[in-house]
Amino acid sequence: MSGSPTRTGRSLLLLAPLFAFLVAFFVWPLFSMVSQSVSDTAVLRLLPHSADVLAAWDRLSPPSPAMQAALMEDLRAVDDAQALGDMVRRLNSAQSGFRTLMSKTTTALADTDDPPADLVSIDKRWQKPEFWLAIANALSPLTDRNLLAAVDLGRDAQGAIEHLPPDESVNRVILVRTFWISALVTLACICIGYPYAMIAASLGGWKRDLMLAAVLLPLWTSLLVRTAAWFILLQEQGLINDLLQWLRLTDGPVPLIFNRTGVIIAMTHVLLPFMVLPIYSTLITIPGNLMPAAASLGAHPFRAFLRVLLPLSLRGVASGSLLVFISAIGYYITPALIGGPGDQMISSIIAFYAIGSANWGMAGALGVVLLVATLLLYSVYARLSAEEPGRS
Asked: What is the pLDDT of residues 203-234, one digit of tens each?
């Protein structure tokens, strides 16, 4: 018994590198993404005195001299241009006109020869409560603004949740498009993968190994290389269009690239192994004498398939469908290279917010929405993959 703690300590030391890897590359990035989606300190860190004064404001009356004096004091103390730009972007997204208003105000406050008496003397817009309301709403360090905006929702002046205007409602459309493309890819993988898995399961020896190797071979090639290959194959002067015209099936090149068709073709090829392997692993466990037994009882082969083989293999179909769908909703490279502007998925929008506009809060919020959808689907997959009660 005395050696048990020592063995436990050694086991924990052996597992320590694994735990450190999981924390560094999985737990911490997820925590950072979630914290970015609800964090909103761009305004609070630059306007501490204004936060104290605005806490007592009724949000309806015009700005008081104390409010103006506190904001002027905070703006004069700002010495970080990047932080000021982040604050202006945050406020301008809540109230249009803040970008020009802040630029005019900071320029006037920097004039030491003729300092302004108050903010209203700089610009009449400072006497409007809506500009101060935008500042007051942005002073909280935590916010649900990004999470709501990720699904095209927002809050009105009273704090009630409302739908964003049509010209600002784009994320929900892109989310629906992402799920629709993923569903089409999943359906295409089922239509191709199920017959392929049936044939592979019915064969034996080197023939089965050859078919399985053909499925696994794409997994050994980089995703970028496979997508680039489809970019070459699908273009107007590509191999597929040349073959179709040589066979006299078309009079001219068929548009297969920079559209939804090309995206589905390329994604289906990439994700097909994730459909074939679960179905194949289910089919090989089904006794091979069930179909002949159904035929001996007078069942037509198609009827025997529908009543015998298909119900027994639905577990593999469901698992493969969830694997393909979960993988498809996070795709970025294939839609970006093969698809057109109307085929970009949610991952492209996340990349735009993170890289193009440096809006990490919005990128994190969309990532949280995608993560929640993935976890829900994965929980369904885990339940389907778990052994049934009573089975060993």
From this structure: 888 899 999 998 888 888 888 888 889 989 99
CB distance 161 to 153 below 8 Å:
yes
Calpha distance 125→390 (Å, rounded): 72
Q: Which amino acid is at 265?
A: I
CA distance 388 to 307: 21
Q: Would 342 be classed as within a structural domain? A: yes
Total count of residues recorded for the chain? 392
Question: Could you tell me if 304 and 366 are in contact, meaning their C-beta atoms sit under 8 angstroms apart?
Answer: no
Kindly give, in sequence order, each residue whose CB lies less than 8 Å from that of residue 301, ignoring residues fewer than 6 positions away. 291, 295
Kindly compute the dihedral angle of the four CA atoms of residues 209, 210, 215, 216, in this order, to the nearest 10 degrees: 60
Exposure of 4 by Cβ count < 10 A (0-12 exposed, 13-18 middle, 19+ buried)? exposed
- Write the burial class of residue 112 (CB in 10 Å: 0-12 exposed, 13-18 middle, 19+ buried): exposed
Please say whether the dihedral angle defined by the alpha carbons of residues 157, 163, 166 and 171, taken in this order, is positive or negative. Answer: positive
59: left (phi over 0), alpha (psi -120 to 50) or beta: left
- CB neighbour list of residue 210: distance below 8 Å, 6 or more residues apart: none
- Please answer whether residues 70 and 52 qualify as being in contact, where contact means their C-beta atoms are separated by less than 8 angstroms: yes
**Cα(219)–Cα(21) distance, integer angstroms:** 24
% residues pLDDT > 90 (the chain): 29
Burial of 18 (0-12, 13-18, 19+ CB in 10 A): exposed
pTM of the model: 0.79
What CA–CA distance (Å, rounded) separates 268 from 271?
A: 5
Q: Which domain holds residue 91?
A: 48-143
Question: How many independent structural domains does the chain possess?
Answer: 2
Report yes or no on 224 lying in a domain. Answer: yes
Query: Token pair 């108050």 is at which residue?
Result: 118
* Calpha distance 252→305 (Å, rounded): 40
Instruction: For 119-138, write each residue's pLDDT tens digit.
Output: 999 999 999 988 998 899 88
Cα–chain center distance at 3 = 49
Of the candidates 299, 265, 275, which has an alpha carbon nearest to the alpha carbon of residue 200? 275
Considering the domain architecture, whether residues 110 and 177 belong to the same structural domain is answered as no
